[in-house]
Specification:
Elements: H1 5-8, H2 23-32, H3 52-66, H4 76-85
């Protein structure tokens, strides 16, 4: 399905609601406002953009950290000295 280029250039708003029970009423209210072209619901996921490969890398990093298999630096200068020594 192609996205109309005119939609990409229209102003858009993101509204975050505290309660799912309000969704239907808010959608109805928005549709009644002059100038509103469309009202769409999008389910968000905190993990969007994180690929399975990235999840594996993060899991491995967490495991290494919990085992103490990581390098820690107390300051940016110490970190820079470490990188310079490589």
């Amino acid at each position: 399905m192609a996205i109309s280029t005119s939609i990409l250039h229209q102003p858009q708003m993101i509204v975050t609601l505290e309660d799912n029970a309000m969704v239907a009423d808010i959608k109805k209210a928005l549709k009644m406002i002059r100038g509103v072209a469309s009202v769409k619901m999008v389910k968000t996921n905190d993990d969007r953009g994180i690929t399975p490969a990235m999840r594996k890398i993060m899991r491995t990093a967490r495991e290494e950290y919990s085992k103490g298999e990581t390098i820690t630096c107390a300051s940016p200068e110490e970190m820079q000295r470490y990188f310079d020594s490589l």
